[in-house]
Amino acid sequence: MIDVNKRKAIFLLHNLKVTRNEGIGVREISRTLRVSTNTVSSIIDQKGQLPETIRQDKINVDPELLRNLHTKCDGYVQRIHEILTEEEDLSIGYSTLTRNIRELDLGQSKNQRCDQKPDEPGAEMQHDTSPYTVKFGTNLVKIVGSVIYMRYSKMRYLKFYRSFNRFAMKCFIHEALTFWGYAAPVCIIDNTNLARLRGTGKNAVMAPEMKQFAKQYGFEFACHEVGHANRKAGNERSFYTVETNFFPGRTYETLEDMNQQAFDWATIRMPNRPVSKTKLIPAKAFEFEQGFLKKLPAYVTPPYIAHERGTDQYGYAAVDANYYWVPGKTRFDVKVLQFCDRVEIYHKRKKLAEYELPPAGVKNQKFSPKGKPAPRFQPNNRKKPTAEEEKLLRSAAPEVNDYLNFVLTLNNHRLEAGGCLVFNAAILGEYFFPESVGFFIKN
Questions:
Q1: Domain identity same for 167 and 191
Q2: I need a surface site. Which of 60, 165, 265, 330 has the fewest CB within 10 A?
Q3: In 3D, which of 4, 232, 245, 24 has the Cα closest to residue 117?
C-alpha cells in the first residue's frame, strides 16, 4: 500500500511535467521512488488520491441461517463450515465465514479481551504461585514459588515452599506486607480455592476465613475472569524474571538457603535495578506510592493454626510429625499454636514453652527447651541409629560403598532402618559381589 504523501508526490511530479515542463516522466518517477511504472500510472489516473474501496463478498450468507447454525453447533465454526459447504451447497471460505460470524457478534464472549487497567499509584497488588523442580545439592526437589507484586512500583516479594496451602498463603502475605509496611486496597488472584469459596471472576465469593484475614491488612481479594491470566500480567512476568534471572547460575543446599537468596534478590537487587523499558526504579517508585497505599497497623497478629494435643507418657506433644517437650510432671492436654516460624504451647491460657520450627523436611525429631537439660525419661524401644552400621558396610569393600551411594541417590532420602539396608546389601552381595564380601555382609 502506497501511503498518501507518496501518492501526492508522484502526482505533483507528473503534473509539473505536463503543465510547466519541469517535472519528470513516469519511468524516471518509477526509478527515483522505486515504484513500478504501472503503479505510478494508476496513481496519476487517481490524481494522487487514496481510492476508497469497499469489500464486496462474493458469497452472501443469510444472517439468520448463521445464527441458527451457531446455536445448533454450540459455536464450533468448523462444523458450521461443513454444514454450509456440504449440506447447503455454499462455496464459502473458512476465513470469510469466521469474519461473518464476528460481524454478527456471535461467540464473542469466548474471545473477549480482559479489561486493561492503567498503572495507578496504590491501586492494586497481585499474587500467584508457580511450581518448579530445582536441585538441592544433588537431589531434585519439587517446590512452589510464591510472588506478590505491587503493580505500580513493580516491587516484588518472593519465597519458596515445599507445599502451598491456605495457611502458607496467609503466612506469605503476612510476611511480605509486614516487610513493606503497606498494602494496596485490592489483591488480584486467580480463581484458586485457597481464597475463593465459590463462583469465578467478578462473581467469586471469598471464604470468610480469608476475607477476615485480608481485613486485618486493609485489602480485599479479587479474582480475575477465567482464562484472563493477563489481568495479572505483572505477576506472570515476575515468574518469567525468576526463571531467567534468579535461577540461572545459582546453587542451593537447602530450602532455607534458597529462600535467603530469594529474599536478597527480591528486596535488594531487583528494587534498585531500572525496569528495562520505562527505566523506572522500583524502590524510588515505591517511596512515591506509599502515600497512596494503606499503612499497616503497628501490630498485626500473625496467622496461626490451633492444635488440641495430648501429652504422651514421656512428656511430648506431636505437631506436624515432630515432637515438642511440654514442661511439667503430669500428663495433660495442651493447645499448640503453630505460627509461620514457631510453635507455642499453652495450658489453661498459660504459655508453657515456645520452639522455633525446624527446617523444612525435618520429621520425627524430638525437641526440648534451649538452655535446659533434656528430658530425663526417653523411650526404651527407640531404634538404634544406623550410622555405625553404615560406616561398617562402607569399609567392607569398594563395591559395597558404590552400592550404598547408588541406593541413597535413587531413593532421594536416607535409609532410616538399618535392617532394610543390610537386607538389600546382603541380597546384592550374594549375587553380584565377590563371595568374601557377600559372606561378610550376611555374617
A1: yes
A2: 330
A3: 232
Q: What domain range includes position 171?
A: 125-295
Q: Computed over its alpha carbons, how large is the radius of gyration of the chain?
A: 35
Sequential DSSP letters for 88-123: S-----HHHHHHHHHHTT-STTTTPPPPP----TTS
Residue that finishes a domain, picked among 367, 397, 418: 367
| 8 neighbors 47 (Cβ within 8 angstroms) | no
Question: Alpha carbon of 412 to those of 405, 406, 415: distances in Å?
Answer: 11, 10, 9
Segment (H or E) for 68 = helix 63-72
pLDDT digits (tens, 9 = 90+) for 199-253: 998 899 999 999 999 999 999 999 998 888 878 888 888 999 999 889 988 899 9
Q: Which residues of 85-105 are buried (b: 16+ CB within 10 A; e: fewer)?
A: eeeeebebeeeebeebbeeee
On whether the CB atoms of residues 157 and 179 are closer than 8 A, the answer is yes
- From 295, 326, 350, the end of a domain falls on 295
pLDDT for 33: 78
In a domain, 379, yes or no: no
111-121 confidence digits (pLDDT tens): 454 556 677 89
Percent of the chain with pLDDT over 90: 41
81 and 182 share one domain: no
> pLDDT-based confidence at 439, cuts 50/70/90?
very low
Give buried/exposed letters for 282-300 (b at 16+ CB in 10 A, else e): beebbeebbeebeebeeee
- Work out the burial of residue 41: count CB atoms within 10 Å of its CB; fewer than 13 is exposed, 13-18 middle, 19 or more buried: middle
Within 116-264, where are the H helices? 166-180, 208-217, 233-241, 255-264
Instruction: Look up residue 282 and give its amino acid.
Output: P
Question: What's the confidence (pLDDT) of residue 14?
Answer: 79
Are 217 and 259 in contact, with CB atoms under 8 Å apart?
no
Q: Is there a contact between 295 and 184 (Cβ–Cβ < 8 Å)?
A: no
Residue 337: its H or E element: strand 334-338
Closest Cα partner for 293 from 184, 179, 181? 184
**Are 86 and 187 in the same domain?**
no
As given in the structure block, the three cell numbers for residue 74 are 454450540
Q: Parallel, antiparallel, or unpaired for β 366-367 and 322-325?
A: parallel
The tens digit of pLDDT for each residue in 118-161 reads 778 989 999 999 999 999 988 899 999 999 999 999 999 999 99
- CATH code, 271: 3.30.420.10
CA neighbor of 275 nearest in space, from 234, 306, 303, 307? 234
Per the structure block, which three cell numbers stand in for 36?
A: 513500478
**Structural domain total, the chain:** 5
